[in-house]
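Need tokens for this chain, all 169 residues.
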Amino acid sequence: MTKVVLLERLKEFTEEHIGDLLLPVQPQENDETPTDRAATVYVPRLPELRAYAQKAPFITHGAVTGKDGLGQHPNGARFLQSSAVVRTCFCVYHPQEQEGELALLNLMERLRIALLQKRVVGGQFALDMQAGIESLIYPDNTPPFYLGEMMSRWWLPAIKRELKEGYIR
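Here are the structure tokens for all 169 residues:
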């Protein structure tokens, strides 16, 4: 359940920090001049993958991997430490090739900088600064659509161990 909450909080965070960045929308039938709009954020992916052309601009957040293990405090105490890796995908539409790549980069940078400034989302999920944020703009983008992704690792809230009465360990 915690990873689901992480994705929902990332969605809220993303909407808050990119909501004022208006991007071009591909004209549809009977649509002479579509109005620019902010990227729509989906968790964990597009509802209809084949509909990406009508959905652009958009961002998706999806959990890729998770890890649970023992961590150790400087005082020697051990604790359960959990993390999740999140893949964030970006798609923008732009009729001009050079402007399209810049629009994609601008959207990705807006979110990257906000994450690095805040480092905590939802009051409980901390960005793993040791792992950092990796980003990639796909080199084989096909105009007028431009795609990129970011990978980030998040520390999840601690899970408390339940002990049976009388059991010590």
